[in-house]
Amino acid sequence: MDKNIITLHGQAQSLVWELQEGAAPLWRYWGKRLPDDADIPLRGEAPAPSFSLDKNIGLSLFPCFGHGWYNQSALLAHRGGQDFAQSITSCHVERESESALCFHMEDAVAKLKFLVRVRLCPQSDVLSVTTTLTNLAETPLVVERLANAALMLPHDAAHVRSFTGKHGAEFNTQEEALGRSIWVRENRRGITSHADFPGAYVLMPNAGEHDGGVYGAQLAWSGNSFQALEWLDEGCRQWQLGAWLAPGEVSLDAGGSITTPELLATYSPHGCNGVARNFHAAIRARLNWPSGTMRPRPVLLNTWEGFYFKHEEAKLKSLAAQAAKLGVERFVLDDGWFKGRVDDTRALGDWVVDAEKYPHGLAPLAQHVTQLGMEFGLWVEPEMVNPESDLFRAHPDWALQIAGRPHLTARNQLVLDMTNAAVQDYIFNALDALLRTLPIAYLKWDHNRNLTSAADAQGRPAYYKQVQALYALLARLRTAHPHVEIETCAGGGGRNDAGIFQHTHRAWVSDTIDPRARIEMHKGFLHFFPPEIMGAHIGSVPSHSTGRTQHIDFRAGVALAGHLGLEYDISTLDSQEKTRLKHWIARYKQWRDHIHGSEVWQGAHTDAISWQAYGREGAWLLFIVRQDMQRLRHMPDLRLPFVDEARTYAITQLEPEETEHAPLHGAWLKQQGFPIAQMQAEQVSIYRLQVI
Ligand code: DGJ
Fold it and tell me: FRET partner for 348 with CA separation of 20 to 30 A, picked from 17, 544, 603, 668?
């Protein structure tokens, strides 16, 4: 192998760069695993096409603007209008290990240093990329755009699958054909956002859910972001992701540096499910569980949709007792418990217990819950303040704001300037006091608006620093209270990303609990994150957000694979629904250890059927979901791509009825398919397949 060729080989993918004299390494390949001994030819010089630079400048690991690169640049920066062009002049590659490289690069003219760290995790087969940019000059460097690096994609990458939505309708999948125009998604909402998830899948021609080459990338970042996919004249595409920067947001003083949020990326020859499996492994490795490892995800009851702001201590105590009887293991007191919080117009910021609702504080309720054998959890929204609050009256300057401009409220609230140390201390102390004085095992950490006018006390944009400050606060709190688990929530799923999951343990996916709506959202969520952190609740009927009414078995069947919760006033249920609920909670407890941590496959069949399979060690749980009525006279069999063609499977139907089926051979299940029984509209059937 030529010494100028640098490779990283993973389980199923390889990356290749070519070192260039006085320039950044050139991208040569990212895709299906190459043999270790494959000889990689140097690029060689081709005759320059007409109207081109005499020496072609190809896609490098870190393309910069102004010195021969015409496409999207990983960096846009200047010094007061000067030094607007950058170009790497030297690169030294340090191999930290078989699977990790450090590209030490410099631009001696612009006086910049770049350190790009690339690690291909041997276990998950997921690439992690971070870049540190350092200003080596005496004058400040204004950074306008900074991608982690450029990723190279083949010229014939055909489709991009990305995710969009809104409050109440998160993680909708959209697929677009890639052409010659640039494809860009940008998020300027200050949090991860419901609308522009910072990640996507890129599918090669003919790639699908289970087969074919698929690339995936996601940014571990809970703030503004961008991603761009661009066709390049040299016959490939580039993909850049990074934190989106507001004008003037980042300025590096002499010696100053900035490190990008981590980018996770992967390639799988096994279709979209292959990419998802890699991401699940990577996220599982990043989750920071209180005791080091995940314990069985407790069934929880959340009070929000059952009670909203109407907290009556006696009623909640009775609810807790009934919940415990059904098998609930964690009781989460949602919004409405703190001083003056009668509705959403007031009180955020005043984190002391409301004496009218709880004359003796929260301790009696919390102790009642723990005496029933459940954990006690509490909702908080620490980064927020209502203008109608003691906190705002005392510190109006603590809210993010732009001098001379009116406040723009959303849900009647403003965002606190987390970059202000006094604000950090105030929030830490308020939460610390609650955690020290009450037996709280769990916080639901909410954030119910997007950022706008986010200037710090010096009038500088604070979007980027706000996210770093949040991470710092979460880390501080977790150090002080390591046993506490945290759920991330931002009006449902506005802040679900690989960055926040380094500090939290559960995602609230959406405020829409309706199972039909959830099917699509869970599918999107599972593209990036594993089921054990996917908060999924059984709610009341009709659904508060959609008005639809569905049977308890459908509501439970859709929620079962996630981290299960209940979110309604169970005291109003008739005995039949209570019996079913108890049954489903028992089912969840029976299967959670299998599902959480398992290999996940998702697929669509024909005629309103979709499915998921959760497997480990030759045992699979197959969920078949019928959303709508059957329109075909006979249902075609469902091919199961996940089974082993060389084995035979014992098949048991678990839901709706427990029934033994005749065993079937893997080859048959894979090629011809699994016979689907008649199902009603809005029904989930669950089967167990076990290798014999
Ligand atoms: C938005 C969340 O998504 C809900 O679950 C609930 O916690 C409310 N906020 C409370 O205000």
Answer: 544
